[in-house]
Every structure is written in structure tokens, then in C-alpha cells.
Amino acid sequence: MTQSIINSTIKPFKATAFHNGSFVEVTEQDLLGKWSVVFFYPADFTFVCPTELGDMADNYEKLQSMGVEVYSVSTDTHFTHKAWHASSETIGKITYPMIGDPTGTITRNFGVMIEEDGLALRGTFVINPEGEIKVAEIHDLGIGRSASELVRKIQAAQYVASHDGEVCPAKWQPGEATLAPSIDLVGKI
């Protein structure tokens, strides 16, 4: 990526997702008005992917209580997502939308397409209610992600969004002290 995706607005897309036993249409408009996570992974029926998607499913209720919707995305079809959901105990517990992106449009929009393979890198994007990307994290295929760390990052992003002039230091947790950057703070941390 030559230009940062942080603070950019999500690009238009239209896709079909498998969600709670049905096929539903999802567009960029569905991500507006609330916090969203777009969670890219390489492929269904693989190895690290189900561990990540299962971890996200285990944290989904917490994320929803924070006003966050989760969308997983791979270049598989929505039909493949349905088949995987029906055949895997881990994937069967997922209740967030699983978007199929067989054309790679969404994957390319977020800059995580591995062109020679037609697969997505492990990309996690946190989007604010205005449709701006506030967190972008991209991993190589062999490195799994942690949903609990994602929860902490979203908590920090939400705090910063609602507390003008404050920032969250490393490892910040809700209820802990934040910082108010000023000239008086320079060199004192």
C-alpha cells in the first residue's frame, strides 16, 4: 500500500452473505451508522481460518454489546460459506454475516488481495459509524489473530471518538487513565 487506508472512507460494494441460515445482500451502506469490523480471511475449509472465525464468534456477543457488527469476508462464495457452516462445529456457531467475495471487489477495495492466489490476506478493519477506517491490521497467512485484542482496540477507538482531545496509551483498558496531548506533556511520559 502506498497510501494509508486509515481515515479513508470505505468504497462502495454489493455482495451476498450467508447469515443466520439465509442469503442476504450486504452493501457499504449496511456498515454506516454503527461501528463495524470487516474481517478478511483466505479461504473456507482451511486451518488457521476456522480458529480465527470461531474466536470471533466467541466474542461476537461482547462486540454486539459495544454496538459493533462483524462481517467476515473471503473470496469464497456465499454457497461455500453455507456449506462450511453446516459441516463444521466451530463455524456452525457463527451468527455474524459471512460475506462471499468471489470477484475480489471488496478484498481489493481494502488492499488485502493476494492477486496470484485469488485469496485475501488476514486483514482486520474497524470502521466508525461515518464509514471511516480507524483500525487496519494485516497479517501474513500463517499468523492468526486474537478477537480479545480486537475488542480492546475497538474500545479505545470508541473512547477516542467520544472524548475529544484524549488519546489511549499502550495496553489501555476501559476505566484506565488516558492522555490529553499538550506541550506540557512533551518529554514527561
Essential attributes:
globular; seven-stranded mixed beta sheet; alpha+beta; 5 helices; 28% helix; two-stranded antiparallel ribbon; 189 residues; 9 strands
Verbal overview:
By secondary structure, the protein is of the alpha+beta class. Helices cover 28% and strands 24% of the residues. The chain is built from 5 helices and 9 strands; from the N terminus they run βββαβααβαββββα. The chain has helices spanning 48-65, 78-87, 89-92, 105-109, 147-162; strands spanning 14-19, 22-27, 35-40, 68-74, 98-100, 113-114, 119-120, 122-127, 133-139. The strands form 2 sheets. The chain has a 7-stranded mixed β-sheet with strand order 2-1-5-4-3-8-9. It has a two-stranded antiparallel sheet with strand order 6-7. The radius of gyration is 17 Å and the shape is globular. The mean pLDDT is 96. This is Alkyl hydroperoxide reductase C. Keywords: Antioxidant, Cytoplasm, Disulfide bond, Oxidoreductase, Peroxidase, Redox-active center.
Shape: globular
Radius of gyration, whole Å: 17 Å
Helix content: 25-40%
Output mean pLDDT. 96
- Low-pLDDT residue spans: none
Question: Span between N and C termini?
Answer: 32 Å
- Bin the strand percentage: 15-25%
H/E element order: EEEHEHHEHEEEEH
What structural class do helix, strand and pairing data support?
A: alpha+beta
EC number: 1.11.1.26
Protein name: Alkyl hydroperoxide reductase C
Subunit structure: Homodimer; disulfide-linked, upon oxidation. 5 homodimers assemble to form a ring-like decamer.
Domain Thioredoxin: 4-159
